[in-house]
Structure formats: structure tokens, C-alpha cells
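Batch job 17 of 40 flagged for manual review because the log was empty.
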Amino acid sequence: MTKPYDPAAEGAEMSFGRKMAYGDYLHLDAILGAQEPLSKAHDELLFIVQHQTSELWMKLAIHEMSSAALALRMAGEDEAAARAGGFLRRQVSAAGLLYATDVPSLSTEIGRAHV
């Protein structure tokens, strides 16, 4: 049986309560300020948010696949295959969320129907 993953064992900070605010850790000001429509078209913000979100999900998918490949190269460790499988499962979940962000209900056609 494999041990549950412990990010703290890899140096991840697990408690920020007294060190920094949630928004500071996630750089929310930068992320939320990155949507700058170039026109007054109502649907442009939707377009920007959908595509920026897709880029973030792709970044996570690449990170997970790279981690899986590294785990598989570590042939000397018994748990390497299990770790690689975990990374690949997470990548599949990220891909599902990536595709879910492009749902027809967010189509710009919906916006035009209510104008």
C-alpha cells in the first residue's frame, strides 16, 4: 500500500495563516487584472476569460505529464509507477476541466439572444 501524498515532504508550505493572505499567495490582483478587452463588445470578456482559463489548464496538464515522465524514469523506486499513475490521473482530470470550460451554454450566441 502506498503512503498518501504529503506535499509538505517536498517543501510545500501548508499553512499561510500568519504569513500572507490568500489573495497574495495566488497573485489574484495580477490574475484578475489580466483581462483587458480591446473593445466594448460585451462578449469579449467571456472570450478572454475562457481562453486564459484554457491556458492555465494546459499549463497544469503539461506539469502533470512532465512529473509522470520523471516518475517513470526513476526505475529504482518501487512507488515510481504508482506516482506516475497519480500524475496521469490528475492530468486526465485537468483535461476534462479544460474541455468543460468550452461549453455551449457560454456561447456568444446566448448573449445575442438577450440583447
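Reviewer: the log was empty due to a logging misconfiguration, but the result itself is present. The two ends are 58 Å apart (CA to CA). Unflagging and moving on to job 18.
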